[in-house]
Amino acid sequence: MNYQEIASTAVLAEMMKLSEQQPVLFFKHSQTCGISQRAFGEFERYLQSPESQQVRNCLIVVQNAREVSNELARLVSIQHESPQAILVRGGRAVWNDSHLALKCKVLEAAISQN
Question: Which helix (H) or strand (E) holds 58?
Fold first, then answer.
């Protein structure tokens, strides 16, 4: 497993601070949504790619960490959706996408281009 599940706002704050040195990809996942289940499979495929090694990968399961999900949305000024991926550099979102757009190749390209 080469991602860290974020379950507290304290750990979210650490990851935001880490984004000053290394990009952080946050993946928001809903355990009860079919679209999110498909996107999570794409996220797992992406995790096998070389691009995934260039960033810190974080998972937010919205049912377990609603406060974390809401806080991330507030910090980066991007409305919450799930599934959703947000790439953060220097404490700022530099890329995001959601729902059916979340495919392995899209995540790889987001890392390569941002």
Answer: strand 56-61
Confidence (pTM):
0.96
Each residue's pLDDT tens digit, 31-59: 999 999 999 999 999 999 999 999 999 99
Task: Locate all alpha helices (DSSP H) within the chain, ordered by sequence.
Answer: 9-18, 34-46, 66-76, 104-113
Percentage above 90 pLDDT, the chain: 98
C-alpha dist (Å) from residue 104 to 38, 46, 82? 11, 5, 16
* CA nearest neighbour of 56 among 20, 4, 103: 4
Residue whose tokens read 């935001």: 16
Give the residue among 4, 2, 98 at the shortest CA–CA distance from 49: 2
